[in-house]
Amino acid sequence: MTTRTVDRAQELAAFLRTRRERLDPIDFGLPTRRKVRRTPGLRREEVAELAGVSIDYIVRLEQARGLRPSADVVEALARALRLAPDERAYLFDLAQRRPRKADRPATIAAPPLARLVAGLSPLPAMLMNHRYDILAWNDEMARLLLDFDTLPPAERNSMWLCLMHPEIREFYVDRERVVREGIAHLRAAWAAHPEDQALTELIAEITTHDEEFARLWAERDVKVNGRGRKAMRHPDVGVIAVHFEVLMPLQDMDQRLMICRAADEESQSALDRLCAA
User: Fold this and answer.
1) Which residue ranges in the chain fall short of pLDDT 70?
2) In what residue span(s) does the HTH cro/C1-type domain sit (predicted)?
3) Of 162, 209, 233, 253, whose CB is crowded by the most CB atoms within 10 A?
């Protein structure tokens, strides 16, 4: 499987089908008649009724027949399919009904943000763009994760490192969750930035070389992950658990500032030892 460009019609069709198939008729008060339901989830006619559109319209959407639903129809479909906020935004992006910036993706750190990253010490911090390219980092983040200076620029991407780098692959304690959440975030970025050829090439490369990524990418989960907790097995100081927060500067909205802090006393002690080394 490769991902060369965003085929909006095909992706919209597949996304609508997968969301429809995940729904339980019981949650809608619909008769289940499970013995005669040949597919999981809701039927097309049930979604059509909930969204206030024709069955033929749903069929044409799910068959990628070139329809471009209006913003009102997209909103109705989002409500009918009970989409989460990130999934709703993804649907609007696929339908090209959400305003987008025409600016090119950031490839270098904005100087004020690079200074901010350095000034956040002793908290580990780094700056990324929407496709997870690592643009700037402080010493604490390098000691926590990896000395990014030793990598060629093409490999300074946190998703690539997590999936392809021999050391980082086994770094996270809850690896599957971290990878799944990262892919869900990357899918949202992919739909929001269809002009970003570097992003589509990154996805194609990882899909070709990593079966885990290909499997999870095909599930079409969408989630923008701005905060959370990660536990890491550091080779020098043992397990370190951190809470992370991702912030978007208003004047450089393609850049994301990630800040980490220890999640417990043991992790803080491990970070202190790591940064004092």
Assistant:
1) 1-5, 31-38, 99-104
2) 34-88
3) 162
pLDDT in tens, 52-101: 999 999 999 999 987 889 999 999 999 999 999 889 999 999 998 876 55
**30, 42 in Cβ contact below 8 A?**
yes
Structure tokens at 192: 């929001």
What pLDDT is stored for residue 141 in this prediction? Answer: 96
- Nearest in space to 267 (alpha carbons), one of 144, 151, 111, 109: 144
Q: Which residues is 126 bridged to in the sheet?
A: 137, 258
Query: What number of CA atoms fall less than 13 Å from residue 146's CA on the CB side?
Result: 18
Per domain, the residue ranges of the chain are 8-94, 111-276
Q: Which of 164, 165, 169, 107 is nearest to 132 (CA)?
A: 107
